[in-house]
Amino acid sequence: MGRRQAREAALQVLYQVDVARMDPEEALAYLQKMAFPVTDDTEENNKPASLSSRDMLFARELVTGTLAHLKEFDLIISRLSQDWPLYRMAAVDRNIMRLALYEIFFREDIPGSVAVNEAVELAKTFGGADSSRFVNGILGRVVKDPAAFYPVQEGG
User: Fold this and answer.
1) Do the beta carbons of residue 119 and residue 66 sit within 8 Å?
2) Cβ pair 55, 3 in contact under 8 A
3) pLDDT digits (tens, 9 = 90+) for 28-69
4) Contact 137, 130 (CB under 8 A)
5) Cα(51)–Cα(82) distance, rounded to whole angstroms?
6) Cis geometry, peptide bond prior to residue 151 (ω within 30 degrees of 0)
7) I need a labelling partner for 109 at 20 to 30 A (CA). Which of 35, 55, 57, 59 fits?
């Protein structure tokens, strides 16, 4: 259906990996089978919840890219969320920010402002009452000066 739905799928996989300690490939396979069946891009009558093979590939790239840089992203989030340890954050918020950080730093085809806006929309849909403001506050600081945050300097 589109990149927004692919981001939702990626978020769900990241959440399963984070909270349930599920293997990323298992989580992707389960999601693909149950929640977002992949369809041929040329099929005319897609179900509303279906993802095209192109969008599923995008979701997979988001998941694998985010997981490859998890430690770095967690350091950035921890650095910016003063007095709010990573382990105390809502798992949804934490994973939304991780996903957006991957897009900001590693997806040249996605402007930083778009990554932040998409993250805020995910937070409004899946997070708590204050999630969208929290996510926007953290990511907004990163997108203003990405070079100040990546590559990550431990202890900085």
Assistant:
1) no
2) yes
3) 888 777 766 666 654 444 444 577 888 889 999 999 999 999
4) no
5) 38
6) yes
7) 35
